[in-house]
Amino acid sequence: MNDRSPPDSADELAVLRHLESEVCSYARSFPVVFGRARGAQLFARDGTAYLDFLMGCSSLNYGHNPPELKSALADYIASDGITHGLDLYNEAKESFLREFHETIQAPTTRLRRTVSRPDRRQRGRGCPQACAQDYWSDQYYSLHQRFHGVSLGALSCTGNRYHRAVAGQLLGGVTRLPYDGYLGPAVDTADYLDHSLSDPSSGADAPAAVIVETVQGEGGLNVASAAWLRKLAPVTQRYGALLIADDIQAGVGRPDAFFSFEAAGLRPDIVTIAKSISGDGMPMALVLIERKLDRWEPGEHNGTFRGNCHAFVTARAALEHFWRTENFAASVRKKGNLLKSRLEQIAQKYDPDRASAKGSWHDARHRSQVGRGCGASHQHRLPEGPHRRDGRSQRRGREVSATSCH
Q1: Count of beta carbons in the 10 Å neighbourhood of residue 330
Q2: What is the mean pLDDT of each run of 10 residues along the chain (406 residues)?
Q3: What DSSP state is assigned to residue 274?
Q4: Of 31, 193, 235, 240, which has the most beta carbons under 10 Å away?
Q5: Rounded-to-integer distance, Cα 76 and Cα 99, Å
């Protein structure tokens, strides 16, 4: 993609193409230099407005530059608030933890211990460490088509072959299971797991934990039914495994509730949150665990940027403004149903084998179903793109998913 010849000052992309690595991805499909953003819109250097369906890969659930978060951060910086505090006690972290506990944890989950991480990569490493404190097994069960990230710990649980190949080494310790509906509507994969673990000759050992996304984003917007999730939970309990809910992409309001598993009544042992938890796209991640699992020794799990106080400030402001009432969740439902309707209208113009609206949806009359998830997809194949120096295609044919901008 990138031109290695000296940059041409007449080409507005010249510096970026000349100096940036081949690893960049999204820019290949959007050869535009963006200058500012507001709400659901990105504005190019020439002033052209674009509707942003990427939204920082779900790290901007409240949109670009929410004024309430901007003002909270500006006031904090103007008062010489601490920028970086490692894990020292500080007022920014205290205020966030209090707000998170009172607004989110106390009403919705029994999990009481919150481990703040600098970003989702640290979260991917933290879950296996937390499980290893008390559980003899070093095996973890993940689901087909799962995406947990691209650090080594997260890659072990990720299903995507393209991403896993980048690791350059064996990624063990994880058994992959079929997701809800993966083998068709006639096969209950939760029953399959139960039967495998109960059979001493199956070769399946009881795992330390089962990690699941209630809505798979990168895996193709696949949605686990509430019935399947309710069946999976007691299976994990029966065989002494922890249930980990990865809410990195599907949580923080994307299904209208704060947690994507709330509508199913799921009670995970561990919950991971990142992306939109800071509210303004800044690096921040949380691991929520039961008190009895909080067996870490001091410094056993850490990261340099775990004290991102600016993220604590905007995260607290987001909870105060968007989650103390039901107004935000109601607006998400309304927008999601509108998006569903419009996507279905588009899909009806094409052969059903080529295009369809895909996702999980519900309205107030169907709250017993699992949340609406991340939106819908208008599926089509992109043409083959230019080739790398080693001959591999830079742009493989794939589904393109349009996700709702909450």
Answers
A1: 12
A2: 58 88 86 94 95 91 96 98 93 96 83 62 49 50 55 57 56 77 91 90 85 83 90 92 91 90 90 93 90 83 84 97 94 89 91 78 35 33 32 31 29
A3: -
A4: 193
A5: 17
Query: Which one, of 349, 405, 406, lies nearest residue 378 by Cα?
Result: 349
Strand partners, 174: 140
Q: Which of 82, 235, 211, 72 lies closest to 155 in space, CA to CA?
A: 211
Identity at 200, one-letter amino acid code: P
Q: Give the span between the Cα atoms of 222 and 215, in whole angstroms.
A: 6
Task: Report how far residue 213's alpha carbon sits from residue 148's, in angstroms, rounded to the nearest whole number.
Answer: 9
> What is the chain's alpha carbon radius of gyration, rounded to the nearest angstrom?
22
Distance in angstroms (rounded) separating the CA atoms of residues 336 and 260:
14
Which residue type, as a one-letter code, is found at position 111?
L
| Cβ atoms of residues 141 and 244 within 8 Å | no
Query: What does the buried/exposed string (b/e) look like for 221-260 if buried means 16 or more CB atoms within 10 Å of the residue's CB?
Result: bbbbbbebbebbbebbeebebbbbbbbbbbbbbbbbbbbb
Q: How many of the other CB atoms lie within 10 Å of CB of 68? A: 15
Q: 335 Cβ partners below 8 Å, 6+ apart?
A: 404, 405, 406
d(CA 384, CA 37) in angstroms, rounded, equals 30
Token representation of residue 173: 């310790």
Q: How far apart are CA 91 and CA 307, in angstroms?
A: 12
